[in-house]
Each structure stands twice: as structure tokens, then as C-alpha cells.
Amino acid sequence: MTCLTTATSNDTIACITLLSNIVMYSMIPPSTLQTVIATLCRTVNNYTLCKPTWKVMRNLLGTHLGHSGLYTLIMFLENESSPARRTTFRQRNLPKPKEHVGRT
């Protein structure tokens, strides 16, 4: 997607607006859900795009793809090599989640 590769803020704003319109008035194909969520995870870190990105994500999770969207977010967090995870943790300078140690 253009949102993932462009450095121009106008292109990114146009992409988020387009995603918002698609979520509101049409249907996102399930095959593109991972790319859409990765895009939203990347753009939410931009101060000027944070609010519109959260709005799109809330609306997306309220559609028929809501459960699949949550599952995709969880998979991003669990997968070390996920582009959404790398971008989110790098830009926010958050520590990696600790490993879960089970009791024996």
C-alpha cells in the first residue's frame, strides 16, 4: 500500500481517508485485512494521523471482520518478525513484552 511506502504526509492522509471511506461505506476483503491493520499500526504513531487512524481501527473492529482483526493484532504482537510490531515498538521506544514463564 502507498501508506506503507510513502514519505509524503498528503499521500498518507489520503490513504487513511480512503481506508475510512471503504470501512464506512463498503467492505474490506478478508484477504487484505492484514495489510490494512499493518498500515493502521504504522500510521497511528504519527501525531497528526493518530485520531483518524484510531477512528478507522474502531470502525473496522466493529464490522464483520472485528474478530479477525483482533486476532490479526494479537498475531502481530506475538510474531517477532511482524512489520507492524517492529514499527510500533521502534517508533514508540517501548520495551519488548516479557516472555511468559509457566509454572511447573
TrEMBL record:
InterPro entries: Tuberin/Ral-act_asu, Tuberin_N. Coiled coil: none annotated. Residues 3-82 form the Tuberin N-terminal domain. This is Tuberin N-terminal domain-containing protein. Pfam families: DUF3384.
